[in-house]
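Input record, target 12 of the design panel.
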């Protein structure tokens, strides 16, 4: 008996999904067929590729290097198949991105890329930066976009986009036309902030607490859109990524308060694994993204 490409594809899908049920749904096989294929591969290799915890499967210590090799083989097969139609790029890209860049910058970028390469399919997942980096580590993602610092021996990061943080208010708020407003002046204001520990909220809270004893948070939500609508109705102020409010500012739905203490910019990075093989579709998208949105 020899290892088959189907067994490797099943193994990679189970490792990524963490369960036979989800893997079967993704690759269009029955659960019994996935289980049998996985068992055959384990029997042939003579090792247990997974350990079970409840209903979830986790890679075993001996399964991790097998996954690295399996994915490398599958990537090479994908590129080999693409040689039959060299004029058209084909393949699948799994992209993970933190909310601001994933929701506001990447949809248009992905649309433009797929218009140029209609044979490419993209799966875009919006998640916190630490989950993006974990997804790259586990080979569940091909490429990531994060706003947090990347300090990892297994990841490479390219600076990709500058994004300043801004204090937003309703258009009629007098603070919007007051010129530069010291942060201490905003001590008595009501605030609308993200509920999750986003980099925007962390950066704002750290700086704000240098100037006033507490922050009066009247509304917390995981939705940036909900924050923008509440601010536009005069419910309070918000500290948000400029990328997420560009359109509302241009339309006059939101105004910006100039606060010198919060005049800082973060860099979104495009992140990839350092040690894994990548498809032609990956390399084409990375080049396209770097050319489209290099830092100013």
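The sequence produced for target 12 reads:
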């Amino acid at each position: 008996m020899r290892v088959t490409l189907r067994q490797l594809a099943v193994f990679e899908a189970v490792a990524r999904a963490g369960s036979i049920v989800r893997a079967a749904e993704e690759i269009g096989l029955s659960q019994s067929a996935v289980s049998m294929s996985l068992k055959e591969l384990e029997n042939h290799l003579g090792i247990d590729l997974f350990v079970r915890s409840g209903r979830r499967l986790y890679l075993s210590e001996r399964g991790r290097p097998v996954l690295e090799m399996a994915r490398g083989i599958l990537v090479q097969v994908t590129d080999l198949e693409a040689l039959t139609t060299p004029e058209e790029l084909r393949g699948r890209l799994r992209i993970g991105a933190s909310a601001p860049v994933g929701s506001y910058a990447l949809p248009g970028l992905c649309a433009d890329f797929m218009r140029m390469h209609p044979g490419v399919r993209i799966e875009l997942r919006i998640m916190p930066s630490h989950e993006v980096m974990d997804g790259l580590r586990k080979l569940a993602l091909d490429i990531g976009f994060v706003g947090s610092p990347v300090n990892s021996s297994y990841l490479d990061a390219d600076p990709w986009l500058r994004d300043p943080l801004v204090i937003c208010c309703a258009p009629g708020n007098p603070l919007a036309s007051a010129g530069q407003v010291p942060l201490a002046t905003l001590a008595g204001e009501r605030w609308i902030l993200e509920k999750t520990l986003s980099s925007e909220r962390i950066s704002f809270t750290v700086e704000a607490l240098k100037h006033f004893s507490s922050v009066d948070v009247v509304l917390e939500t995981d939705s940036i859109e909900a924050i923008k609508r509440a601010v536009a109705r005069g419910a309070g102020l918000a500290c948000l990524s400029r990328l997420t409010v560009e359109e509302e500012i241009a339309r006059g739905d939101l105004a910006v308060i100039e606060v010198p203490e919060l005049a800082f910019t973060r860099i979104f990075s495009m992140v990839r694994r350092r040690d894994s093989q990548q498809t032609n579709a990956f390399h084409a998208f990375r080049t396209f993204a770097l050319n489209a949105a290099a830092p100013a």
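The first strand starts at residue 50 and ends at 53.
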